[in-house]
Amino acid sequence: MAKITDLSKNAQALLSKSSSDEAFREKFNACESKEEVMALCKASNLSMSMDELQELEDVKDDLELAEDDLDEVAGGGCTVNLSGCKVDMGGW
Is the CB of residue 48 less than 8 Å from the CB of residue 14? Predict the structure, then answer.
């Protein structure tokens, strides 16, 4: 099972933003292609390569979000509560 800390820093930043920013998450979930996700990342000042996006797609079903991992993504300064939060990687 993949851990969030095994992902690149950019992939972690995308997951963190999608879990903490409802407006971003809605736009992210509405994306229908990798290109749309890339455009959203760029508009949101998130650095993301197609390889990193593919990395997220490859592990999305096996991603384990441990409490320590969430602290790492959140920078250790806040808690991210993902209960009831679903990040849909879309049909791409």
Answer: yes
Burial of residue 57 (CB within 10 Å: 0-12, 13-18, 19+) is middle
Contact 24, 18 (CB under 8 A): yes
**Torsion angle defined by CA atoms of residues 25, 30, 35 and 37, in that order, rounded to the nearest 10 degrees:** 0
Q: What is the pLDDT of residues 28-75, one digit of tens each?
A: 989 999 899 999 999 999 999 999 998 888 887 776 555 555 555 555
Burial 64-82, CB ≥16 within 10 A → b, else e: eeeeebbeebeeeeeebee
Q: Which residues contact 17 (CB under 8 A, 6 or more apart)?
A: 24, 44, 46
Q: Taking the complete model, does pTM exceed 0.85, yes or no?
A: no
Q: In angstroms, rounded to a whole number, what is the distance separating the alpha carbons of residues 13 and 2?
A: 16
